[in-house]
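Question (not urgent): is this output format expected?
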Amino acid sequence: MNSSNVISFEKHRLISTIKKDCNDSALFYNLSLEIGDNDRVVIAINGHDIEFTKITLLIRAIELNTQNTFAYHNLANLLGDDEVVEINLLGKQEQLNALSLYQLAIKSDYRYANAYCSLAARMQNRGIESIELHALDQEGAETHTPLSLYARALENDPKLTWAYHNAALLLNEESPNFVIGDERLDAAELLKRAIYCDPTNSHAYYNLSTTTSCEESILFTDKQNGTAYTRSALLKKTIELDPNYSNAYYNLALSLYKRGKKHEDLTVNGQSYQMDESQLYIRAIESNPNNTLAYFNLAAITPSEKMLTLTIESKPVNMNKKSLLNTTINHLPNYKPAYIQLAQLMSDDETTKLSLNSNTYQLNKEELLIIANSIEKF
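Got this back:
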């Protein structure tokens, strides 16, 4: 029996059980785990066919048990920042958004580390600096920042890789350290711990590579296999774990140039490759066609007469030096160097088509330089 059949069997078993006992919160919660985000199930309850989505299954689970921590948390994960759901909590209709649901998850189980981490991440993504949480050991509320929520998450689960990773991204010159218990950790140490907790966390390897510009320094030694990582080794490991990590290819191309190397040995999708600077920029663009500076840097090292073939969104696209610069400007209209380099490639009677602020213009060399001179900074 394959895994899909097992899932299907479990789904049907839960539906049949709910028909017999429609007041068990755990049944609705477990059924929500068996269906996709956009799936629907119909259940006959008290003689009526009722259609449920993943969201409404979780709502029913909460209404049947207002202490169902996991249901609050999973429901919050499904909601967008501006979405609200209506839930009957102990006879009172409540309009709740994701932040409120995370708070209720914490209130129902103050040791549930994932709820602290998810609440902090949602605040971090939305730029929310603080939030009030029910105090654990006293009446009233206590104020929490994303960093203090990540600390609380790690106090309850010291192996929560994303809490270490996300906390590292919040540190800056004004707040260079993360305090957990008696420890004060900088961004690099947090990212190392994220990797120790999950050696497959590609974002942690990549972000650790950005904490230093010194290639020769050994950033850390992996406890699992004793591997010592330099900056370029971290970028290569990022790509090994995630072959579509655009910024890793981009930064590795920059690193290659700075180290004076002609190519880099990489493992991509289990295969070994040697890639030069141009190939790395191409992979950066193919992985993310909106990686603007990859187009510009690729243009800078591409001879005027050379035509490159890139695969963008599964389609072959031919690009030369001019079209790479055109694309740079289309993506980043205020990038002054792209206008200057494009103008230098053009003859006096030549024009080029550019899309600027949703409008299309046919511009000559002089007009490109006028625009460049009007851009004060980039």
